[in-house]
Structures
1.
Amino acid sequence: MSSTSANNELAESLPTTAQPHFEAADPQWYLNRELTWLEFNKRVLHEAEDERTPLLERVKFLAIVSSNLDEFFMKRIGGLKQQVGAGISELSVDGRSPQRQIDECYAVVRELEAKKQQLLVKVMALLEQQDIAIVPYSKLPVKQQQLMREHYIQNIFPLVTPQAIDPAHPFPFISNLSLNLLAGVYVNKPEELTQVRIKVPVSGGVSRFIQVGEELLYIDLADLIANNLDLLFPGMKIGYCEIFRVTRNAITEKDEEQADDLLQMIESELRERKFASVVRLEVASTMGKQQSGMLAAELGLNEEQDVFVVDQRLAMSDLFQIAGIPRADLLDPPHHPCDHPKLVGATNIFHAIREQGEILLQHPYESFVTSVERFVKEASRDPSVQAIKMTLYRTSAGTKIVQYLIDAALNGKQVAVVVELKARFDESANIKWAQRMEQAGIHVTYGVVGLKTHCKVVYVVRQDYNGLRRYAHIGTGNYHAGTARLYTDLGILICDPHIGEELTELFNFLTTGLVPKRNYQRLLTAPKVLKPSLLEKIDREISKHSNEQPGLIQFKMNALEDADITAALYRASQAGVKVDLIIRDTCRLRPGIPGISDNVKVISIVGRFLEHTRIFYFQNGGEEEYFIGSADCMKRNLESRVEVVTPVQKDELKADLREILDVQLGNQRSVWEMQSDGSYIQRRPKNDTQRIGAQEMLIDLAKKRCKAVGKKGKKIKRKKRMIRFSD
């Protein structure tokens, strides 16, 4: 059953009266988290199908969906399978058992996989027209085959290790997401065939696709190995050789309260994840049923359910390599973030923040390097800075922030960093960052037991001319130079004494775990304050709604999954409050149900950047409130993570947030509108002026802001020259 048909089934069960009765606990009002997330991947895959998307960008979207589905099996299917194995029969808020969710998800995944395979054929044919091709080894001219064989012997063959599968050699361990060949080899009699597993060594500098000569012609590494098996098995005959791949469960979390050393516990979890149970087997369509059945049995899988047959190419996430080919004519126009207008020309970032009060940062439209990284860099070197405190959820080798923190410690400043060791799939990197910082004398802590530290905060204490001042950056995205160019995020640089006091309370909580009553008046922090505050503000919007002053709630975030927030938004709609939701992926709420959610509009933006911004807006009877922060409206964010959402109080910055919301809500190019059954319909531009995507419009607006400041700066310089000349 597909997600659309499953949701249609729910739609048919809706009451048919003009004013249906709303019970918050009734499953019919809630869409399934997993199915709506898969629906998001349909929208992403559409970018690979859309002829308006540049060709290599279409390849990129194929790779993105493939990577997303890998993670979906590791995290979501893995978790559901654990529930089934533990005998958990509790239904989700939408009324589904764990097994029913798996079954319905599998149906949708098979739809997605079939569409991916069809699109790959189409896109590769278009690439060939542009002289870019992945060709079978057998189709290469003999001379090129010889060259590639020699390349294989010199550069790859020493890395290849065949493992026999027979009574003397038990079935080998198959690592997560690795590409493997299953070969059958024999000397004289086919009935005396031996099965062999060969791991394709895609890692450590060995690419999946090997370039042939100087042209943009590639062969698949697995294909190269498969066609040169005589080197591994000299004098033997090859009965068959087929490719396969496994996906393992990534959920192996232990109880933190029982851990004496959190660092050792996380390292142990990473080792266990390597050997975790297999949740999916992918095999080439040419593999025989006997071979795929043997693999499924050895891996402990249900052959009918857990084996996915692939017609074209396994591990399409490796197509990121092809998407990265430097053909500007087949890519999106290059995007170069501009420097923030309020920071251009400022010799001291702290003076600029103090004079402005608040500075709103919009990434990737404005530079992360010349704003956030600069903030930490200047803090590390400024002799007036006494202390730096920071939360670190994900970062990258390309981000200089960790080095600036180390520099600050070496410069005698007090530096404290709260590192989240359990940021999934970044645990290993975060352990290394934590150890490196500890060696430099930085006070590293790992947050509060039982809570993930997901907030994005840098906090600086500086001795100003009139006493200690507290400066901060509060953001919606990670301190990660790579994603800062690929994700849309917001941040605010602020020097507000009240916010500063509350951040002091926050870090005292994060570094001790002690929970005396902490008095947050401005910041909305999870897990204690944020959810009750959002519910209270939704109820306040209902109470202030009138015909003369209609209520309005607008949320922009990645996901709406929390049942309590969803129910509150239903109540707001029934009271007449207009609710606009810009939700990237998972959304439980069903818009457009007469009498229930006919005042709710849900849209999703898909474009060249991943939407990652969180904005919360309440009209509040004319006294408008805007908030930005790290939290989505998911149960985990609101109840089991440390999150920070901050008010945006300056009118100029409120206008900037209003511009973002209006651009995205009104866009006709990159917007998908959610239907009450959980499906989405893409808006269609009616004229040329509507053919610009929301993200492209925000790029243009950022450029205009920079140009306006540039012209203003030239006028000031010209005026200064005139004054000098008159002197």
2.
Amino acid sequence: MLVKSLCLHNFKKFQNQTFDFNEDVNTFVGDNNAGKSTILEALEIVLNFQYRGRPFNNEFSPDLFNNDAVAAFLASSKSPADLPVLVIEAYMKDVPDYRGTNNSLLNDAQGVQVKASFDPDFTDAYQDYLDAGAPITSIPVEFYKVEWMDFAWNVIKPMTKKFRALYIDPTRIHPTFGKNQYISNVLSTALKKDEGFRLSLNYRETLQTFNDTDEVKTVNKELDSDNKITNKKLTIAANTIPAGALQNGLQLEVDAVPFHMIGKGEQSKVQIKLALHNKSKDIDLVMMEEPENHLSHVELSRLIQDIEDQRNGKQLFITTHSSYVLNKLSIDKICLLHDSYKRLHLLDKGVVKTLKRLPGYDTLRVALSKKVVLVEGPSDELVLKKIYMANNEGRLPECDGIDIIVVRGVGFKTFIEIGKDIGTSVNVLRDNDGDYANNVAEARKIYAAHPNIKLISSTDNNDFSLEPAMISANATSEKELLSFAKIVLSTQTYNLLAVEPTFEDKLAFIVDWFKSADGDGKGKKKVDSAIKLFETTESFKYPAFLGEVLNFD
């Protein structure tokens, strides 16, 4: 069974929204409160008829309705016809028994629906309530009925439904979740049938021995000795009932530490794995909330690999704030909740392959930001931040929603491809490397059809990178050059510059000093100079194209 799409009507923040899904992995990303968890909750409701682990009909409340729908109802005459309807629909594949036209699209399709609507049986009672003049400040769900139906208009019963879906949320998994079943599986696998019987018998006999101790007899002698609670004999005893006694009495330990006392990260990891290992062979799909919580990079790497192994081709729905999870599960499986809903299933396959192999790049920043500046190194980032602060009352660019990302190793193309189809405004600061026509102008043609992608550089081939461009902007005179050099150079290097005989010699010296060669340590010197620029209170000028990089109007 596969879920092809999900339709939500008046559910939480979604008034009318359809979400199409990938058949294998769906990784939901978005800002806080974008609706990632809401989609998983809707899937849990329509697939398992549960909300946050409890029966949905018991948890159904006014808080589940879309705010606009609530406002419209409160502004109406509040008649039964004005009461909003909440609908969650899952359009499916490979469940022919659930085929029909009982869906909001009236399509002949396979699927299931949860519908919460006014119950006509309560028409008179609701009218009496209105006539009594009682205040109505929310949706009166007491007059609603909640139905779980397939598209053929048949009631779905949990025990006989045609699919199985596992929901895993580490934040609400009880420490004993899956423990008894896991221990039972271990015992049945490790022991022969007669050995299992003997172990159970020995355990029960051990408990009976506990009941015969003097300490227990002393407690029982004094317990209700005056028969005020009951006229029969009241005692305490260890539970020796065979059914489940053994696994209930045993506990999991990690390096001899009881499970409930180990760290949160280890608990989260073990609980997720217990749920997957116990259920993965018997389910059609998995829903999972932020598996990265409390985990180190190495442990997260192991967990993601285990999720992939145990998923065994089953459909996966997962929320995350981790670029590592995103890249490792394949970045083209993104289901992005931004201003709209968008999948990246058409992302360049080369980019996908690169990031699966090198998952440590912070690609999520490109996916979530509306305005991105890509730069080649930390020097560019520091200088741009200083320029922005100088022109915006000391605010950093991120305060105004501009994310400056240093691109390392994988190149600009990887990050551009992510932002290109999403619609992210991406300004790329490029070095022209002494050939603006070939290195920048030609590259711009590749993205001519995408106005949200801008490649920006100096048009002067002499300004081949950031440093010579900054020098040119601050070298209209020898005095200005020395003033700028005093900011960016160490005292020792500045003294070497100062003794150069002419202005031209001084200019050539500082430009040459910033040229990099393998092994000469100039990269670190560039960063040191950029830090000096960032921290200075002295004024300096910058080339116009750097201002253009920070302009998203």
3.
Amino acid sequence: MNDELSSTLTRRLGGIAYGGDYNPEQWDRATWVEDVRLMCEAGVNLVTVGVFSWSSLEPRDGHFTFGWLDEIIDLLWSNGIAVDLATPNAAPPPWLAGHTDTLLVERDGRRVSIGSRGHFCPSSELYRDRSRRIASALAERYRNHPAIALWHIGNEYHAHCFCDTCDSRFRGWLQHRYGSLEELNDRWGTTFWSQGYDAWDQVHLPSKVRGHVNPTRELDFSRFTSEVQHELFLAERDILRAAAPGIPITTNFMAFFPLIDYRRWAEGVDVVSLDMYPDPAVPGSLIEAAFQYDLMRSLRHGQPWLLLEQASSAVSQWQVNVAKSPERMRLGSYQAVARGADSVMFFQWRASRYGQEKFHSAMVPHGGESTDTWRAVRALGQELDTLRDVPGSRIRAEAAIVWDWDNKWAVEGAAHPLNSFSYRDVVMEHYRALWRTGVHADVISLDDDLSAYRVIVVPNQYLLSQHAADALRRFVENGGHVLVSYFSGIVDEHDHVALPGYAPGLRETIGAHVRDITAIREGEAIPLVVSMEIADLPGSAAAMRWQDDIGLETATALVSYGSGRFAGRPAVTDNRLGAGRAIYVGTTLDEGLLGAIMSDLVKTAGVRPPLSAPADVEVVERRSEAASYLFALNHSDEARNVVLEREAIDRLTGVAYSSGHTLELAPQDVAVLFSARIGA
């Protein structure tokens, strides 16, 4: 976030933003009055309005009906509630869908129809014109309204269109990227399977083909898909910024979303925002949430971000929609704040009576004020008021893990030894091991500045440019500690195998070379022989899914294969280069061994958690210039004890504690421990 705009938003709201999506067009005016009364009771200070309101704002082409929006914004502001005003481009109205060229086409050639959302073609000139027009109308009408604290452009951009217009735009994008057909042919490797092009009109986006698409063509289409939607966002952003330069602008990102490179998008927003729905039925889903929160914080180099959507209880999009308990809802909300969020927002304020998401939970459920959910929502809003000075504080991380959209698109878009490969799953295996060490971690790209970190974890960086490989080598030479896992450094940025294979760009860094790669049969586990000293290693260790045949150079073997084709050969290596250390993991390790190696790496690097705590207690520290806010979150269903290392006051209870005090956290409970920073 632009620092000036960030402080402006914080000052206007007076603390943590609390509220959710509000859809007043679904309700009568008597309900509006009741809603505002309940919002005030719950401590709501910000609501998102207008996300899916296009047909209510413009029921006919060029005929605007802003009167109801004027009324609700005035009502909210007269009660001290600010507005995050959205442009409604995510759900074009039926009159616009009547122009079929505005409708998205699926990969199989099927043109979608009206009746849901996100049905627009991102390249349609008519759609672009009308979305800019309504954004301009909103900007002109509300730019000076004191209620508007934030502009919200669109919603969860996710178009993936294969129409003729996108085909033409993709061709132009490629011409700009490569300049000539000769360059395109070279980068796409079109001599394979007789795909050489001798005219630009032969080049198309990768719609349905027999068999597999050229992987570099598919990779470029993924890049194009992200950029063509970014054009839509930027066009509306520039309209709003010109009309109201003092109001910050955002759009809501989605967890693990595959089509958009949020790292490239992040520089175009004033504040990063996230919609996050961890499944309470899935063990460890709060660790996945922690990863997303770390990613959002890292996209703009540690700046606070906004949680714009979460569920108060159950969602409605999964096969089995288990409801969050009120305790779990509170715990998840504080987890987001602990990891850098300056807001706790929900979808939505009042549960709908009709439509696809009528059973998606809300701050005000169908059962109203008599429900546990409402009581928890009201209590949370009142409690968050005790943290009014937390917004703007930051997290200092000395460890980082790499997440790279180009790499995801490449490694999952090419045929290779393990075609069930999930980049998300592999990254989360490594992140869980890092999370359990208790240290703070950013989520970065190897194109970022690495100098702030002592530890960097690089899970399966299949696509590795020479620039990134050099940066990683320099990081280790200068004293950094790295863990790199298998199938890394295999191809360059054009998805061409780096020769001599494999991983030549990492060879000096890891002190070894990979002679060959092979998959392990599903369900098979190969025993490992561990030569390093690991005090906490539980039982025997095993390799799964993948094997590298590693040839040692300057590295030593920490773990070796115990049987099979590569029996006695290294599975995990350790190399000292310059002042640093690089561990290379040539297989999928079981959770216990990976965790032990990660813990050893972090300790050797001298990175420490903010406070020693049991394994299922998450501890995160946010700092301002003058204060420390230590968040302790008990993910267990049993009470846990934490020994404090300095004097602190629990902001949520007002109780003061001395250094050495044993703090008991009830099941799924939270403490926010405030202390003045010594020397601040």
